Amino acid sequence: MTNAEIAKLLRNVAAAMTILNDREYHFQLVAYEKAADIISASAEQVTDLVREGKLADVKGIGEIMRGHLTELVTKGKVKHFETFLKKIPAAVFPLLDVPSIGPKRAYKLVTELHLSKPETVIADLKKKLTSEKLTIERFGETSQQALIRALEEFGKGAGKTTRMLLPFADKIAMQLTDYLKKIPEVHQAEALGSLRRRVFTVGDIDIAVASNEPEKVIAHFVQYPYKSRVIEQGPNTASLLTSGGQQVDLMVQPIEGFGSLLQHFTGSKHHNVHLRDLALRKKLSLSEYGIKRLDKKSEVREKYKTEEEFYNAMGLEWVPPEMREDRGEIELAEKHSLPHLVELKDIKGDLHTHSSYPIEPSHDLGLTSMEDMLKKAEQLGYEYLGFSEHNPSVSQHTERQIFSILQKRDEHIEHIKSNIKSVRVIKLLEIDILANGSLSVDDKSLSLLDAGIVSIHSSFGMSKEKMTQRILAGLSHPKVKILAHPTGRLFGSRESYDVDWDTLFDFCKTHNKALEINAWPERTDLPDTLIQEAIKHGVKMVIDTDSHEVSHMDLMQYGVYNARRGWAEKKDILNTLGYNEFAKWLKGGE
DNA sequence: GCCGTTTTCGGCCCGACTGTTTTCAGTCG
After folding, report:
1. Is residue A508 scored above 70 in pLDDT?
2. Which residue is the nearest neighbor of B27, CA to C1'?
């Protein structure tokens, strides 16, 4: 069972509890939803955590839930879950994925309209709504029309089911904030939510505006030319769907309270819930409007112009948005001991780049010449640039031919090195680890390189044990220093392969190997949660772009964001070192 | 069902908007 399936199951149980509407379940279902959120966000598979007995380390999943999940993994289902699920018609659950349909409405629709087939319930409901005149309590004409639209949009894949990659979301948010700033009533416009936390995929786009004339701002917003429709509109907030199908939520607040608004809508939800829980213990109540003192009976809220003031008023250090996931950052902020996160300006070089040099690889070749990439590196202020084209294809060449190709690349690099002096060139190669753990180039060819970067590009479906052994075998060569895109995941098309991370981390730590944080947006690999784990194990990392074209080199920022989400500091990232130190590490042994 | 510098028992974030009523339930973030 995948994490997504387990999370969905827990959400269904929570929905069943909601429908049963028994006070007894009220807080239980919150716990189920929280567990579902934690599991969806986890980079480790729950099935693995259960088998390895590591579920106890996960905060938010207690003894009872651990028992349920163990039963789920070993027996395929959970008796306790079934007692809830069987009380609710199965056709209710698919409807929960449709925005605006929650447990209560789904149950009402299914029972009153006698929808019995879960496989076709969405189509059946739409058909009933469009073909008949229905009278359902609390579902008037307007509600029914809204439902039809929601079902149609859901069918097209709009709304919360599709997430977009961060750079794309950045672009849309930029267009919106630029549009908003066209009227003078807008003092400040910022994109918040998961986008500001720099999550690698973004669901909907949240924008906050500081203004003392909210009506004018809302009126301007709902006139956005590239919208398909306005979802809702109130005095201080509004939501619309862009013509591309992305939801944009707008909040407006007076300038003097903008700090509280920024904080609130940056989230994450779990961070905010934890923060408010902490506040309650201090007899304070937090909201997007500021902080209310509960011991005094007054309704006066203290307002905060900046986020720093807001966090400080809580006795906390300001928390970088990337860390706001309730993974222990609030505890550290209380002690004023948050890590000092790595920044883009700390990066001194990029190691994983593919030039257009004709290396005859089995995978893709880059599109930009080495010279142009070096010029770009110079503009970016780098001290060094590593070329790491894929190894020449093994099936098309003999070992001798591979050596000859690499020798020529070597001569070419030596030639251009004499022209460009400000950026040092590092001779690397992205080397496949074959299914049996061997490298796709031999020792003689490896001797031409400064170091090797290894990665997996085939046979992804191996068992966890075999894959782990395969990777360790590949990394074992003394010339190999870096494992590229360690999980192999590709957003929207490929799940991670199975690896025993503790074993891999320990190996890297012992043998002085680095893991890559690949900045390519579809990859974003290592994922943030594994970066955090790697750091706990004392493993060093490098942040690379995996550029195949000169403009890709600008994507380094996205790798840095992801590293920050994993709490990486400058000392954890090796390509923050100057050339001499980095080269020393590259040549160094274990 | 979870969790602990008020607590191993007794708490559990806070507010906006919509639609349908006329004071609120449901959904969302």
Report:
1. yes
2. A100
Lookup: nucleotide whose C1' is closest to A24 CA: B1
Å between A239 CA and B18 C1'? 13
User: Separation of CA A40 and C1' B1 in angstroms?
Assistant: 18
Domain A258-334 fold is: Beta Polymerase; domain 3 (3.30.210)
Nucleotide nearest A252 (Cα, C1'): B16
* CATH architecture assigned to A344-587: Alpha-Beta Barrel (3.20)
Predicted confidence at residue A159, as pLDDT, reads 42
Say which DSSP state A361 is in.
Answer: B
> A495 CA to B27 C1', in Å?
31
* Range scoring the smallest mean pLDDT among A81-85, A196-200, A418-422, A436-440: A418-422
Tokens 């009506």, residue located: A215
Q: Which residues contact A99 (CB under 8 A, 6 or more apart)?
A: A150, A153, A154, A159, A160
pTM: 0.88
Assigned CATH for A161-253: 3.30.460.10
Q: What is the largest CA-CA distance in chain A?
A: 84
> Rounded to whole angstroms, how far apart are CA atoms A257 and A208?
12
Q: Tell me what the pLDDT averaged over chain A comes to.
A: 93
Domain boundaries, chain A: 3-158, 161-253, 258-334, 344-587
Nearest protein residue, CA measured to C1' of B14: A287
| Spatial distance from the CA of A339 to the C1' of B13 (Å) | 27
Report how far residue A303's alpha carbon sits from residue A254's, in angstroms, rounded to the nearest whole number: 10
pLDDT digits (tens, 9 = 90+) for A416-475: 988 888 999 999 999 999 999 999 999 999 999 999 999 999 999 899 999 999 999 999
Residue with CA nearest to B15's C1' atom: A287
